[in-house]
Amino acid sequence: MHEYTSTARVWGLSCPGFPEEVSRVRRWTRDILRGSPLAEDAELIVSELSANAILHTASGQDCGTFHLALAVSPQAVALSVTDSGGTTTAPKVEHQDQDAEHGRGLGMVSALAHRVIVHTSQTGHTVTAELFTNPRPGAHPC
């Protein structure tokens, strides 16, 4: 596809690592995806990924930030949250039992998304959740 004829649109938002920013990114996502059947799932996913960045990385510490990218095409919605690092472990999908109090967020994201990708760099982690508009039968979550 030629870059000038692409129908994909991409938005970006940088936020300070304050807990109240989670509601801001939910609202921002909801506004961009208004009318999309994927909007509710995307809103839930972005709130979980943003909260994780604030709670578990340097994004939630003094002067920390996190960054959100939202790409929309006729075939998919991709949500990426990049944190500020500062942790020795990368985010990973864990399937906890129903009584667990922690560690269930990325499992929920994995259940909603068709694909979840974690990329680690020296400056932080990026978690991308992809939602497909017309997934192939039986091709649901990772």
From TrEMBL:
PANTHER family: ANTI-SIGMA-F FACTOR RSBW, ANTI-SIGMA-F FACTOR RSBW-RELATED. Gene3D superfamilies: Histidine kinase-like ATPase, C-terminal domain. It comes from the Bacteria. The lineage of its organism: Bacteria, Bacillati, Actinomycetota, Actinomycetes, Kitasatosporales. This is ATP-binding protein. InterPro entries: Anti-sigma-factor_SerPK (IPR050267), HATPase_C_sf (IPR036890), HATPase_dom (IPR003594). One of its GO terms (molecular function) is ATP binding. Keywords: ATP-binding, Kinase, Nucleotide-binding, Serine/threonine-protein kinase, Transferase. Residues 19-129 form the Histidine kinase/HSP90-like ATPase domain. It comes from Streptomyces griseoaurantiacus.
